[in-house]
Design brief:
By secondary structure, the chain is an alpha+beta fold. Helix content is about 65%, strand content about 10%.
Length: about 120
């Protein structure tokens, strides 16, 4: 038996919302993505990587931070699958994982600029 709502809720809408609500794995992944984006240093790194593939040394110089601090943040972003690494010889180059990461980041920037 269907629960009664104050307003008319379409059965398809109810089913869609319940499926999302009950998908704990998906919700956890989304939550981790937004947690990853909640750190100002990680946002700055992601911005730089949205412009170009970069090595740790260059990111550190651009951010005016130590390579150790940058490496720590890059490891976190990589673990969250927001960035990827490619190697050329002994050097590692970082870039955004895919267009989805760029889109999320770009929408965030656009929304923030709209609020300013």
């Amino acid at each position: 038996m269907r629960e009664e709502y104050i307003d008319k809720i379409d059965e398809d809408l109810e089913r869609d919302i319940r499926e999302f609500r009950d998908n704990d794995e998906l919700i956890e992944i989304i939550s981790q993505i937004f947690k990853s984006l909640s750190d100002p240093t990680r946002l700055k790194i992601l911005y730089a990587l949205s412009k170009s593939e970069l090595c740790v040394s260059d990111i550190a110089k651009l951010m005016e931070m130590s390579q150790s601090s940058i490496s720590h943040q890059l490891a976190f972003l990589k673990a969250q699958r927001l960035i990827k690494v490619s190697r050329v010889g002994r050097r590692a180059y970082y870039s955004l994982d895919d267009e989805h990461v760029f889109s999320i980041f770009k929408f965030g920037i656009d929304h923030a600029k709209h609020k300013i």
